[in-house]
Amino acid sequence: MRSIAIVRILVIVITLLSTWYFAERMFSSKWETRSLRDLFAENGVKEKKEKPKIHTKCGNEKECPENYFAFKLISGAANVVGPSMCLEDKIIMSSVQNNIGRGLNFALVNATTLQVLKTGHFDMYSGEINEVKKFLEPIKEGTLILIASFDDPATKLDDQTREILSSYGSSVAKNLGFRDSWVFVGGKGLKNKSPFEQHLKNDKENNKYDGWPEVLEMSGCIPKKMD
Ligand SMILES: *[C@@H]1O[C@H](CO)[C@@H](O)[C@H](O)[C@H]1NC(C)=O
Prior knowledge:
This protein is an alpha+beta fold. The protein folds into two domains: about 1-40; about 55-225, no CATH class. It is built from three helices and nine strands, in the order αβββββαβαβββ. It has helices spanning about 1-50, 130-135, 160-165, and strands at about 70-75, 85, 90-95, 105-110, 115-120, 145-150, 180-185, 195-200, 215-225. Strands 5-4-6-7-8 form a five-stranded antiparallel sheet, covered by helices on one side. It has a four-stranded antiparallel sheet with strand order 3-2-1-9, with no helix packed on it. Strand 4 and strand 5 (about 115-120) form a beta hairpin. The protein is rod-shaped. The N and C termini lie far apart (about 95 Å). The structure holds 2-acetamido-2-deoxy-beta-D-glucopyranose. 2-acetamido-2-deoxy-beta-D-glucopyranose binds near residues 113, 117, 140, 142 and 143. 2-acetamido-2-deoxy-beta-D-glucopyranose (NAG) binds next to loops. InterPro entries: FAM3, ILEI/PANDER_dom, ILEI_FAM3C. GO terms for molecular function: carbohydrate binding.
């Protein structure tokens, strides 16, 4: 009787021990798989975070913060290569779009929705300045005005039109001259001068091309208008 009891206890003890042994192996292997999976998951997240750096809107150097939009304006090169405008990664004016021309190139954009309201180009060497005034007259507050020059942006500019362009925040419009390079982003109803403006005087001594200054390229982030 006694030996049977001892055998029973031994069987119980061995069963307990082996259960514990296998249980522990199973759990520890489970933990291992888990932590390995976590490791993979972490790597996956890291890879995803790094991806957007490769492409930025309009090919700009930096991504814009939330509630800002990316833009890039390039003026015409001499009288050869037309200007281009990019807004939030979309080309809105270019030779390929077939909506640019010699003189002044305008894009009117809703500053809240970024919808392009209208584009237009006006020959400022032999065109009609009244066409520019007609184009600008209906502009409402809350409209962004993007401008890029091509060849000659100024010969036909009169004081009244220079005044209108200045009221959009331009510091240059009053002195813009024959064959100057100019890029500008302003707005109807701006109280201050726009920080988004570049200008190069046509100047024989310093011109990059024979009769024209260097191309201007301006990019950055503009705060969206919020109501
Ligand atoms: C811009 O779009 C908003 C929403 O459609 C509209 O309420 C506003 O009048 C527009 N502004 C301009 C200047 O077009």
